[in-house]
Fold this protein.
Amino acid sequence: MTSAPWEPPTTPAGSDAAGSPERRRTGRGTTAAVVVLAVLLVLTTVTSVHLWRTTTAWQEHAAQWETQAREQAGQAASLRTELDGVSAELVGARDQLRTATSRITELADEKAQLGDENVVSQQYLDYQRRVSEAAGAVATALGQCIRSQAELIGYLEEPEAYDPADLERFAGDVQALCDEAVDANDQLQQELTQ
């Protein structure tokens, strides 16, 4: 018997032999898929972190704007309340001015009837001059106060269009003008009691 020459063992097509080309291709494909998935996971994580940070920043920014808006609304409400109080004082001052004018006339009549007509007339004229000056000062101060309040009301209708510090400063100026009107009225009242 003759022995047959030696032949390497053959593997049937499609078998799972470790060195087969098909097995190597599947290994490379799996590795590539894992790398692509890892890259996608990293990109998704980076994007999620970026979106989270952006959302947090916007929430903080919105909260700051909301706080500022509430402060502005509080200041506007405070200024409106103050304006209402000043307006009420102004109405009272006008009533006092009418009463004072009426009282001036009465006092002038009473003083005119006293003593010597010449002396009384001179005193009456002097008194009338002082009272008229005081009444003029009250009228001027009230006019300035009213105009300033009307202007302030116009500004307060759109407070967001103006700097809050400027509004507050202007409200202080209006208050000072109205305080001058009240002081002028007090001086007039002192003149009337003499």
The mean pLDDT is 80.
